[in-house]
Amino acid sequence: MSFATALRCRECKREFLLEAQYVCDFCFGPLEVAYDYDAMREAVSRDSIERGPTSMWRYADLLPCDAENAVDIQAGFTPLIRASRLGEELGIDTLYLKNDCANPTWSFKDRVVTVAATKAREFHFQTLACASTGNLANSVAAHAASAGLDAFVFIPSDLEQGKIVGSAIYSPTLVAVDGNYDDVNRLCSELAGKYPWAFVNVNMRPYYAEGSKTLGYEVAEQLGWRAPDHCVAPMASGSLYVKIWKGLQELGNLGLIDEPKTRMSGAQATGCSPIVTAWNAESPDIRPVRPQTIAKSLAIGNPADGYYALGVLGETGGHGVSADDDEIVEGMKLLARTEGVFAETAGGVVVAGLKKLAESGRIKKDEVTVAFITGAGLKTQEAVMDTLEPPLRIEPSIVSFEEALGERQPGVKAASA
Amino acid sequence: MATQRVKFTFLQQLITLPIIYELGKEFNVVTNIRRADVTEDRGWVVLELEGDMEEIERGLEWVAEKGVRVDPVQGDIVEG
Questions:
Q1: B79–A29 CB contact, under 8 Å
Q2: C-alpha distance from B60 to closest chain A C-alpha (Å)
Q3: Buried b (16+ CB within 10 A) or exposed e, B63-75
Q4: Cα–Cα distance for residue pair B68/B48, rounded to 1 Å
Q5: CA B75 from chain center: how many Å?
Q6: pTM as predicted
Q7: Residues of chain B neighbouring A184 (CB-CB closer than 8 A)
Q8: A249-268 pLDDT per residue, tens
């Protein structure tokens, strides 16, 4: 059962009923879900979680909705991969990848949407909607299809082809808006006031955001019920990054792991790095920017949770780091070459950030480090397509093969001759 | 009468201008500040506007023309 008790304003701490509300009536601050942690502590144990399903719904007692009603396409409990080769290349002894490419629509968004869709159905909405940079659109369209809900997804018109197809296949009403993601989001905020729809990242947002906590839970459980020493996560709005930390803290508060002392580092694309810029300037002020990066899933110029992300960076002793477009592509290729994981551009940002943090000694060699890979590379093939070696074109004969191979790899030809 | 919740974000060169005062004076709009954070080099103000919708829209257009970023409060940007 859920132990959620109220929606609480993150600014003035006033509480509200658990409804489709997302802004405090008094100070207009953002709302988040409050829980009865004492009751939760009585009900939840490592054993009760381990007996649960092999999806993020094994943590249903820590979420704001009941598993029996879940709109569930098996999000979560994705692999935690020991990344020895990448670790060796970067000089990190114990490196893991949390591979959220393995979700049903190939990104971590399935975690947040399964919670938002479940709440939407509890609140008797007929339509699921979102503003999206692509991954969320895919996930909303898929979950709506699974739940038999109508879907409206709004995306910037310059999105990668893979992300458009990845939504359209589920037959939502797909709306491409001429503008960047901030423009799309602004439009959806206005639409949310006009149409009786469950916008997962507007009026369902307090519930939606809770889904990201499960990344923190899973990593701790998969490490044998302990928090990592260091996490590196991508930052767009900053919500995911903040919620991973919240997940670890909650497990500590519930006595399921020792109090986490994890250093939380966050990575952004240089072309859209308002949080890292503020962190570097040691300023609490997030200045909105106009995004200009190939990492479109992180291209949020006015990050809602930026202020809270800065708080976590400071509180945990983490670091903010950014990577430019070339470094992002190199990060994607490095990850693929060493670990066999094809991540989207956000993964390239994380790996490039990881590399910088390791090279500068900000990740210590002996820290148990987890890098969060939040989406799959097939969605953003355009980012790397022109940087990869084309296939060898040959006639169907050994001679032709060896000739072509010799041109590409002279040493190999000599060996075979 | 309509109400609209908005967030104004001011850059440094606009901090010292009495834009909210002028908004209430030039347009038939009641301005009600709920939350704000203003420093010497930038600031934001979350407020509720009350008036005829057309008048609110005219007023917001005027504020934006002054160079202030205007966002709906519901428009807190979350990752997508």
A1: no
A2: 14
A3: beeeebebbbbbb
A4: 16
A5: 13
A6: 0.91
A7: 80
A8: 999 999 999 999 999 999 99
DSSP β-bridge partners for residue A173: A152
Is B42 in CB contact (< 8 Å) with chain A?
Answer: yes
Each of the 80 residues of chain B gets a pLDDT tens digit; together they read: 788 889 898 887 888 889 999 999 999 999 999 989 888 777 889 999 999 989 999 999 999 999 998 887 764 445 55
Residue A183's identity, in one-letter code, is D
Residues B29, B59: contact at Cβ < 8 Å?
Answer: yes
pLDDT over threshold 90, residue A240: yes
Coil, helix or strand at residue B15: coil
Query: CB contact, 8 Å: B46 with chain A?
Result: yes
Question: DSSP letter string over A349-388?
Answer: HHHHHHHHHHHTTSS-TTSEEEEEE-BBGGGGTHHHHTTS
- Residue A53, amino acid: P
> Which of chain B's residues have a Cβ under 8 Å away from the Cβ of A239?
78-79
Question: CA-nearest residue of chain A to B43?
Answer: A285
* A27/B46 touch (CB, cutoff 8 Å), yes or no: yes
Other Cβ atoms less than 10 A from the Cβ of A229: the count is 17
What tokens were used for B11?
């850059």
Q: How many helices (H) and strands (E) does chain A have?
A: 17, 13
CB A231 within 8 A of CB A242: no
Evaluate whether A119 touches A65 at the Cβ level (below 8 Å).
Answer: yes
Quote the ipTM score. Answer: 0.76
Chain A, nearest residue to B34 by Cα? A27
The beta-carbon neighbor of B77 closest among A135, A190, A304 is A304
State the Cα–Cα distance between residues A97 and A105, nearest whole angstrom.
18
Close Cβ partners of B54 (under 8 Å, ≥ 6 residues apart): none
> Is residue B68 a contact partner of residue B8, using CB atoms and an 8 Å limit?
yes
SS3 A297: helix
d(CA A236, CA A234): 7
Whether B34 and A202 lie within 8 Å, measured CB to CB: no
Cα A331 from Cα A347, distance rounded (Å): 7
pLDDT > 70? residue A165: yes
